[in-house]
Amino acid sequence: MQPRWRKLKKKKKKKKKKRTTNRKELQLHAARPRFPMIPRCDLAEHRKKKGVVHAVCSPPLSLGFWIMAASKPVEPQSGSGLPRWQLALLVGTPIVLGVGAVYLWNRSRTEKRKGTGERKTPEGSASPVQGQDGREQESMIGLKQQRTRVISTSRLASMRTPSSATQTEAIALCPTEQKSDLSTFYQNRAAAYEQQMKWTEVVQDCSQAVELNPRYVKALFRRAKALEKLDNKKECLEDVTAVCILEAFQNQQSMLLADKVLKQLGKEKAKEKYKNREPMMPSPQFIKSYFSSFTDDIISQPLQKGEKKDEDKDKEGEASEVTGSSGYLKAKQYMEEENYDKIISECTKEIESGGRYTAEALLLRATFYLLIGNATAAQPDLDRVINMQDANVKLRANALIKRGSMYMQQQQPLLSTQDFNMAAEIDTRNPDVYHHRGQLKILLDQVDEAVGDFDECILLRPDSALAQAQKCFALYRQAYTGNNPSQVQTAMDGFEDVIRRFPKCAEGYALYAQALTDQQQFGKADEMYDKCIELEPDNATTYVHKGLLQLQWKQDLDLGLELISKAIEIDNKCDFAYETMGTIEVQRGNLDKAIEMFNKAINLAKSEMEMAHLYSLCDAAYAQTEVARKDQDLAEALDSDMEMEKSIVQVQEHSAQHRAKMWKIALNVSGKGDSLSPWDGVLDLPEQTLIHNRCQQLIDQLEVSEEERSDMVSDVESVITFYCKSRNISFTPELSWPHLLKPLLGLQLPRSDLYNCFYAIMNKYIPRDCVPNGRPFHLYRLLLQYHEPELCSFLDTKKITPDSYAINWLGSLFSSHCIPEVTQALWDFYFQQADPFLIFFFMLIILVNAKETILSQEGDSKENIIKLLEESPSHLESEDIEDLFSLAQYYQSKTPLSLRKMNHNLFGSSLVALKEEDTDLSQALCLPVSVPEILQANQLQQDGVRFFVVDCRPAEQYNSGHLSTAFHLDSDLMLQNPSEFALSVKSLLEAQKQSLESGSIASGEHLCFMGSGREEEDMYMNMVLAHFLQKNKEYVSIAKGGFMALQKHLVDMNVEGLDSSYVHWIVSTSGSHSSLSSADGESLSSPGDSKGVKSLVNKMTFALKSKSVNVKEKMISFIENTSTPVERHVSSSDRVGKPYRGVKPVFSIGDEEEYDTDEIDSSSMSDDDRKEIVNIQTWTNKPDVKHHIPCNEVKETGHMFPSHLLITATHMYCLREIASKKGFAYIQSRQALNSVVKITSKKKHPELITFKFGTNNSAGVEISAVERYLIPNAGDATKVIKQQIMKVLDALESS
Hints:
Helices cover 52% and strands 7% of the residues. With 1295 residues, it is of the alpha/beta class.
């Protein structure tokens, strides 16, 4: 079976026509983010967007009003590709630049800024610089050199922890002239405020950081997010626009935020504008073209004999002379005169008078309501016609077609389909129904059904040129996306037949032109557009498409703009022309002109959805002008970008020469001398015959002349021979070196450059030990297992090792299986990124893409599966490389950095010896992760991979000391108590899920298992690991060295003075703070380290047993499990606390202190097991309930229960939902508001609110109950509760 890569190509081409991308074709999980393409001009795609369903020479010929909204397709639920607002954000991108060049140039100017998927800071900025490990290392040089104030290095280092208090102290201590450091401290304090959801403070501190460092990307982005929270969309857009520009549109997060804000702004502005807009009639050409798409439409037929007075036949221009006083007939007369503005009023007269043509008038009025973009007014008229059982069935069917088109425009495809199907049921012989439904099917990608509908239409109406043309287009699209050359040719022949049989059908020429453009037959496509213009010289849309063709074909910007300007001259109501002109002006950097064009298009928009889209484009362009105005450096950078990109366009004529220059620079061999000069040129190796034959076979594959062939063989043989001699290596048959030279030969390099490039590629990009059973293949298997455990398990079961199918992939960088053009496109990206590890992710994507096909080969032989795998890259085409690269970067961002750090010596000079401990990856159970990465990854400031650490040591070891964020899963239970182990695993997974939802510091999508570090003790942990891998759990790793490595690392940190509070990484649940110990048990901690911030785990695990810890009762940083505890019930006999007589009530609201002694949980005070069950909706709707607050009740053990707080005038009720009885709940507690003595929140988790209830007496406050709730928008909730409590207390005092 054919691998699915070809299907990727199909979907991608489908995407170009419909502006959607289905990432499921790549076998990606739905939860994974999509990948914006590199910003580039997409005018060809823009052209296709306007013409995929209808011909460019006319308005919508099928889903009429669908196109009137500027052909907006159904917006997909998920997809990728470049959001069109980016066209307005990106200045100066060359209009016809191919995928490769601008992508490469963007990569070269942001090299290494995005390698790991983390947010990076642009070069040249004064913001934090990047360390080799990819983590931010703030510059402290200025502070260290400062002699006027003595500040401890370790103290400053601790201040970098994002807490507002430490950052405030750092700001106070930092000298004002140290702007870089000061801006960092402000940004870090803003991060702390962000965790507390103090958005105003975030904006203030980020503004301070930006003032000190105007191009501080992290501060700008954080301020943008805070401004969004404050609903300041305008300033948010300006900030995120600046971020996008500084990051060269490479960061997914900022792109998505910009897209989100632009859509929100667009919707808000469009809603207001559309509500107050003046309806505008389209151009006469548009209206005529629209009605011409119906062949069985009563209302569009001319007046018949008997509808006019015979004596007035010579006065057909006078609408007043039609028979009688029928408003409908007058409207029909106005249609013939193209006096469209009077039609709606005349139809209204007919309807109000209840005339004989009421049904026709309703349909005609609805049609013109739709034409002017007033769908709200049109729908009631259409509904009335459809429901008129005694009306002409042709009228009802036509109304259904138009309502179905309206639903499609409103993105309601199900309702649209229902209307078309109903029309087919009531009027089975109506060709219009099948014609228009066929075009609906094209929009829905149901091409086979579309072809069937067109066939039915043609059967009923053989002379329907439009249906014939549309059928050809459907067949062409089906063949084109299916990559079937023979069917493509059949469809093209069909177009030829249509224009031969229907030479007056402009639609046929237009659709044929689009197909020819897809096939890059630009000259003939241009001829077809000329035919359209000849047939319909006043159709503005044709000029726009012909103009876009000039841009794509000849890169003739002047001619393209001239044609689009001509379109506007012909029809000054052509919103498509204004939108396209605005898009082009953005490309040229004329943002003011672009904004003017977009505004004109906005005024012509016929739907609120289209208007919102245009506002987004306009706002994006405006935001960029504001950013450039405020930051002159950015404006200059953008201008230089435009000039650079224009120069790239100019060198496309000499692409081979340009690529050779670019590669030599990327490989660092530009200007290097002739390394072959010392060699005598003698070809005398023992394996020389083998070398010569392999070189001959390589050249035979290339289409070159005999003279060139001889020279090429000589060059390749010399390069390989000298490399073998200089490196003392023997050439063997399995080596892929000749393939590696194939892409280089296409660059026509002299022999010296050929060797230098070959040597550089071998040294930097071909991994060492690239032989059968070599280390790179074991590493690749671990990577495959990490991301696709099911696929890895399948191949392991078949005993198919990576080297059996991928040795040539890796040894030739895919040149062994890809044609030179594809390999060159791949290497363009690869060399510019300068990251040799990317090859492993390219290989991963190849398999991920073919996963479905591979898994379907269950019954096939091992040899056949290996052959299938090996040939997978051969289906790659140049246009696939961009997606391949984007996906590789995504998977790389989801992979621990330890993969490259632990294997950094895999690439480079082979003279460097491998360490013995690093050589054997074949015995690794899963991907190892270093302890430093685990500690760094889960800091609140870090992006990228975050780990959910699972400590698998026995309970005694865990209790004596463990990582403060680790979840305990006793591996001994797997054999000793399987049922308890199964429950523990379930709790673990639920805890992981809840930690992710709550944003806990311990949260992580990636599971990392930690053992003791002693092989004999970790046997059971390995069994646990195997259990998760067998369940095909992705993102499973192991902490290298286990807990011993953690201890050693923290001791080393202390010795180096990097973290004075290092011991607080490890906590104990069996006593006081644990000390670190070495492998032999000797204590390594120093005295005096008991102070500091007590671990959150210590505070929340006081009820844990010291031995045989029950894993169901773990709670780490509010990571909860779902084990069922003993539930509490409040009985009718419970006594509600009241203040002691004569003593004022005590009530306070504040942050919960680090040490809180009032740890009484009301759940432990139950005296009655009876439970009162109530209906949640009934209770929340009670008249005495003033506030309803959805929340989660948090028990002392860490369990959480979905609940509802109901606040009445005097009491607070907690209703706990019953999982097995939807809509019902237990009354969990009932507390008097005047018994609330304290409301507190966690500093690090402000959404966790603790209520303490008690009574006052002469001895003070006696706490009677403590209840905790996890409340979204806790600030608002506590505010209303406090207000109600104050009312109660005031009433008590006044009584």
